[in-house]
Model the fold of this input.
Amino acid sequence: MAFDPMLFVDDVEATSRWYQNLCGLRGAHGGKEYEMIVDADGKLVLQLHHADADEHGGARLPAGAPRGAGVLLYLSVADVRAVYAKAQEMGAVTEGPPNFIRAAGHTEFVVRDPDGYALAITQRGDV
Done:
């Protein structure tokens, strides 16, 4: 069993490019309304859907709703410090540099995507 998270965003194509640029992922669907972001092996990591979508049982993102309130998505990477450097280069909003979380056994930092969703970038160990 696996989760296939979907984020409702204002600009699917721009957000897709952001995730691809930051994390070295790639788009596998493409389009203005919907995108599938996959890793190098083609495994689905994240789905993006235009914010005004209604085919999922009504508007999932009402006008003015905060993005990602109460949700933190985790993404494991091979080099957390390289991704942090890329985030800095891109001017992305981060919540501090990578640090080791002893209880989790990984190093992480949190970055906000263009729509304000929080993403914890992690790497196993104290790196």
